[in-house]
Amino acid sequence: MTIAIITGASRGLGRSTALQCAGRGSGVILTYNNHPDGADAVVREIEAGGGKAVALKLDVSDIAAFPAFEDAVVASLDTHWGRTSFDHLVNNAGFGLFNPIATVTEAQFDGLFAVHLKGPFFLTQMLLPLMAEGGAIVNLTSATTRVATPGVAPYAAFKGGLEVLTRYMAKEFGERRIRANAVSPGAIRTDLGGGLNDEFEALLARQTALGRVGEPDDIGRVVASLLSDHSAWINAQTIEVAGGYII
């Protein structure tokens, strides 16, 4: 059995990814920050399907808390799976903020940076010694790195940095046969950044070749597939999963 660590999996894309991975037979360590009830619900759903999952609290922006999280991961691996390593890491945790460049504050900038780039960098660094040979990493980025969308400049800039970091992970971790890829979602029906109202959703659907916005499972299925052996020769790539958004 493989074991995946998925950050920010109490809802949205992380929740879908956790369920998709569990459905493929993977054990799941999922993290949450402000939604413990959601995380517990995901664990119960996985267990109801015959899988095994554990929910751990993690604030991806609080690097000082990473050693304690690592200890919790080690304990969970031993207690629930009798292992000292895990196989897959999904850096998914994040939040949205809509603000034009002219009004972004330093605190908002720093908060987005901490969660979307600094956090994944140092969390991956921390967990790397626990990752098994031949493992896989998927970083969640955004189609806003390709399509300039007014109001999300810092978010998109840090997601762009994460795409670059993904290629460096693939290069540096290759000698351990650890793959690293990024998945770049387009418009998805989640509550990130306050969600989509009907008017905005209709606009996004008209800008998408397949005529709709995405659902969390559209992303979760791709992430789970990239982690699997079926994608063993895909490495150092950013894959946009957006239904043909502004092409």
Molecular structure report:
It is a single chain. The protein is built from 7 helices and 7 strands. The chain is 43% helix and 17% strand. It has one domain: Rossmann fold (3-Layer(aba) Sandwich). The chain is an alpha/beta fold. α1 packs across α7 (216-227). The mean pLDDT is 96. The relative contact order is 0.15. The termini are far apart.
How does the major sheet shape up?
Answer: 7 strands, parallel
Radius of gyration from CA coordinates: 17 Å
Unreliable stretches (pLDDT < 50, length at least 5) are none
**Shape annotation:** globular
| Count of spatially separate domains | 1
Beta-strand proportion? 15-25%
| CATH architecture term | 3-Layer(aba) Sandwich
Cα-to-Cα separation, first versus last residue: 39 Å
Give, in order, the helices and strands: EHEHEHEHEHEHHE
Per DSSP, the total helix count is 7
Helix-strand makeup class: alpha/beta
Strand order of the largest sheet: 3-2-1-4-5-6-7
Q: What number is the mean pLDDT?
A: 96
> Can you say what the CATH homologous superfamily is?
NAD(P)-binding Rossmann-like Domain
The helix fraction, in percent, is: 40-55%
Number of strands: 7
Strand-helix topology:
Elements: E1 3-6, H1 12-23, E2 27-32, H2 36-48, E3 53-57, H3 66-81, E4 86-91, H4 106-127, E5 131-140, H5 153-173, E6 179-185, H6 198-206, H7 216-227, E7 238-241
Parallel strand pairs: 1-2, 1-4, 2-3, 4-5, 5-6, 6-7
Helix pairs in contact: 1-2, 1-7, 4-5
Key phrases:
247 residues, alpha/beta, Rossmann fold, seven-stranded parallel sheet, 7 helices
